[in-house]
Design goal:
Elements: E1 4-6, H1 12-20, E2 25-27, H2 40-45, E3 48-51, H3 59-63, E4 70-73, H4 83-88, E5 92-94, H5 101-117, H6 119-127, E6 149-153, H7 157-170, E7 173-177, H8 183-189, E8 192-193, H9 196-202, E9 205-208, H10 222-227, E10 233-236, H11 245-253, E11 259-262, E12 281-283, H12 292-310
Parallel strand pairs: 1-2, 1-3, 3-4, 4-5, 6-7, 6-9, 7-8, 9-10, 10-11, 11-12
Helix pairs in contact: 1-12, 5-7
The chain binds (2R)-2,3-dihydroxypropanoic acid (DGY).
């Protein structure tokens, strides 16, 4: 059995790095999700696991892998890994920060624009051959984006990249929440650090960019939607469980908010069944980082962390212990 356990198919260039380093690996080329608790033989010998955010790596998996030194997540978020359990066992956890920032910010803006300008509805209308000519009161009147107020919940790398697009490209006013104020971003973009209730009350668009944690799970419930403006649009490209999806559905049905652009869902891969019937929702299947260039960079980064740790150099992108 192999030294490195790769739970899903990854890019050939990343595999080539392991070959160059003379490392021995088992690669799930079938690319179907694995039940890790049934992979005792692979885990018993594994010194490294390269995984995706859909692989739940808990204490039980770690205990089945007594030689494990590193868990390299091919994602920037790592809520699929019990980092505290890994730390207790002396196992390093790494992620892929930075390489997917711009790509995810692009998708955030794509969802914001699509929801504001009703692009998906209009596209379906066009394909159905319903366009009968330009009218002042066309069926797909949307809302302006340029010059509006964007509330960013979590001003980390991706939140900042979204704020730059909004302020520099669309002349938007930026409000934000974060663990601490970011004076350099305030200077650069004129962003204002506010409380979550103030952000919710004042924003035309609210975009979520905070990691999923015990503190942020269900940060958005009916109580938060009640504080938002009835025309406001919620964008979530972070993690689904930050929003209580049943409450979001109610908020959209009752007109507490104007729309939503969603890349992530509470119980992926399932989305709340009522979302599909709501015309004011744009939904995509967790594609924030889904460009070939970005996914290749993520795979390379995960594998580079493994080669660094197994050669004794230490991790390049260790995650912080909670
Ligand atoms: C991540 O890296 O956490 C993203 O959700 C992947 O698209």
């Amino acid at each position: 059995m192999a030294q490195i356990f790769i739970t899903r198919k990854i890019f050939d260039e990343a595999i080539a790095l392991l070959d160059e380093a003379g490392l021995d690996y088992w690669h799930n080329e079938a690319d179907s999700p694995l039940n890790l608790s049934g992979m005792a033989a692979q885990l018993a010998e594994a010194e490294a696991i390269v995984c995706l955010l859909t692989d739940k790596i808990d204490a039980q998996v770690m205990d089945a892998a007594p030689k494990l030194k590193i868990i390299a997540n091919t994602a920037v978020g790592y809520d699929n890994i019990d980092v505290a359990a890994a730390t207790e066992r002396g196992i390093i956890v790494t992620n892929t920060p930075g390489v997917l920032t711009e790509c995810t910010a692009d998708l955030t803006f794509a969802l914001l624009l699509a929801a504001a300008r009703r692009i998906v509805e209009a596209d379906a209308y066009m394909r159905a051959g319903k366009f009968a000519g330009w009218e002042l009161f066309q069926p797909h009147l949307g809302v302006d984006v340029y010059g509006k107020t964007l509330g960013i919940v979590g001003m980390g790398r991706i939140g900042t990249a979204v704020a730059r697009r909004a302020a520099l490209g669309f002349n938007m006013k930026i409000l934000y929440t974060a663990n601490n104020p970011k004076p350099e971003i305030e200077r650069e973009l004129g962003a204002q650090f506010v409380s979550l209730p103030d952000l919710l009350r004042q924003s035309d668009f609210v975009s979520i960019h905070t990691p999923l944690s015990a503190q942020t799970r269900h940060l958005f419930t009916l109580a938060e939607f009640h504080q938002m403006q009835p025309h406001a649009i919620l964008i979530n490209t972070a993690r689904g469980p930050i929003v209580k999806e049943a409450d979001l559905v109610q908020a959209l049905q009752r007109g507490l908010i104007g729309g939503a652009g969603l890349d992530v869902f509470e119980e992926e891969p399932i989305a709340h069944p009522d979302l599909a019937g709501l015309p004011n929702v744009v939904m995509v299947p967790h594609i924030g980082s889904a460009t070939t260039e970005t996914r290749r960079r993520m795979a390379m980064m995960a594998v580079e962390n493994v080669t660094a740790v197994l050669s004794g150099r230490g991790p390049i992108n260790p995650v912080r212990t909670p």
